[in-house]
Design goal:
Structural class: alpha+beta
CATH superfamily: 2,3-Dihydroxybiphenyl 1,2-Dioxygenase, domain 1
Pfam family, one: Glyoxalase
Strand order of the largest sheet: 2-3-4-1-5-8-7-6
CATH architecture: Roll
InterPro entries: Glyas_Bleomycin-R_OHBP_Dase, Glyas_Fos-R_dOase_dom, VOC_core
Radius of gyration: 15 Å
Strand content: 25-35%
Number of domains: 1
Distance between the termini: 17 Å
Oligomer: single chain
Protein name: VOC domain-containing protein
Helix content: 10-25%
CATH topology: 2,3-Dihydroxybiphenyl 1,2-Dioxygenase, domain 1
């Protein structure tokens, strides 16, 4: 079975009740800069990155919590928790998704409205959300 190839950290996500306030903190205190935010589903989101860095941080409006790991059997993928997560990129996306399924890992795939971005969501054994 194929493991992920060419893995790199894509982004870190933070949630907040006040997206603009938290973005201002990252901008003014930590030196992040705001970058273009693609049109994804969901509430307010601001994307930022440190100058000269490819890794981004996404600050999202706090939404209703999704299903807990032990309650997620048959869960609606639209309700997956999107707040605190880690997102990686891989160079073999389709092969990697097939390998997850072959290993018995429950996955939820989604194409974003930009028509370019495909994502797969899954949980690690401790119930932490991963997005590739």
């Amino acid at each position: 079975m194929a493991a992920a190839k060419g893995v790199s950290l894509s982004h870190i996500a933070r949630v907040s009740n006040d997206v603009k306030r938290l973005a201002n903190f990252y901008e003014e205190v930590l030196g992040f800069e705001r970058i273009e935010t693609p049109a994804f589903d969901g509430g307010e989101v601001i994307w930022m990155r440190l100058p000269n860095s490819k890794t981004t941080i996404h600050i999202s409006q706090r939404m209703e919590a999704g299903p807990r790991l032990e309650e997620r059997s048959g869960a609606d993928p639209k309700r997956l928790p999107r707040g605190h997560h880690v997102c990686f990129s891989v160079t073999n996306f389709d092969e990697f998704v097939r390998s997850l399924k072959e290993k018995g890992i429950e996955t939820f795939e989604k194409a974003q409205p930009d028509g370019k971005t495909k994502q797969v969501f899954f949980f690690d054994p401790d119930g932490k959300l991963f997005i590739f």
